[in-house]
């Protein structure tokens, strides 16, 4: 079981649904969600921010999209603990998948909606 997942998605219905799936699958103790990638990045940059085991990140968001977040996230080497990222996106575009895989912190790509079996599979991704 993971201690904490950061869920970043601009869609409130997707946040609610994903939270329910993760809670029912019993894969995490705490879920912290953000509707803005900028807000999530600002939180991660705070020295008092508790660590996370995993970030679930949407791609298509206004302001700062998932790829913008990843570029900023990976260049901020000052973080003592850098959680792995799994892209959780409605995009089935193979270009998005290849782009996501080009980032060192990305451990997987899941197309929404997250299924219960996929929630369990997140644990396997982190163990690999």
Name some characteristics of this structure.
Rossmann fold; 5 strands; globular; CheY-like_superfamily; TCS_response_regulator; Sig_transdc_resp-reg_receiver; phosphoprotein
Structure description:
By secondary structure, the chain is of the alpha/beta class. The protein has a single domain (2-127), classed as 3-Layer(aba) Sandwich (Rossmann fold), CATH 3.40.50.2300. 41% of the residues lie in helices and 23% in strands. It contains five helices and five strands. A five-stranded parallel beta sheet has the order 2-1-3-4-5, with helices on both faces. Helix 1 crosses helix 5.
The end-to-end span amounts to 15 Å
Q: Please identify, by name, the CATH architecture.
A: 3-Layer(aba) Sandwich
Provide the CATH superfamily: Response regulator
Return the structural class: alpha/beta
What best-fitting shape do the alpha-carbon axes yield?
globular
CATH topology: Rossmann fold
Q: Provide the β-strand percentage band.
A: 15-25%
Helix content range: 40-55%
Major sheet description = 5 strands, parallel
Number of domains: 1
Number of beta-strand segments: 5
The sequence of SSEs as H and E is EHEHEHEHEH
**Strand ordering within the main sheet:** 2-1-3-4-5
List unreliable stretches of 5+ residues: none
Radius of gyration: 13 Å
**CATH level-1 class:** Alpha Beta
The total of helices stands at: 5
Average pLDDT taken over every residue: 91
């Amino acid at each position: 079981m993971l201690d904490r997942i950061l869920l970043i998605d601009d869609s409130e219905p997707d946040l609610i649904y994903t939270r329910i799936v993760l809670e029912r699958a019993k894969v995490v103790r705490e879920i912290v969600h953000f509707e803005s990638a900028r807000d999530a990045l600002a939180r991660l940059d705070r020295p008092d921010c508790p660590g996370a085991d995993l970030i679930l990140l949407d791609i298509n968001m206004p302001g700062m999209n998932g790829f913008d977040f990843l570029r900023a996230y990976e260049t901020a080497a000052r973080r003592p603990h850098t959680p792995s990222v799994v892209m959780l996106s409605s995009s089935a575009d193979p270009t998005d998948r290849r782009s996501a895989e080009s980032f060192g912190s990305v451990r997987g790509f899941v197309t929404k909606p997250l299924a219960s079996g996929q929630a369990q599979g997140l644990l396997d991704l982190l163990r690999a």
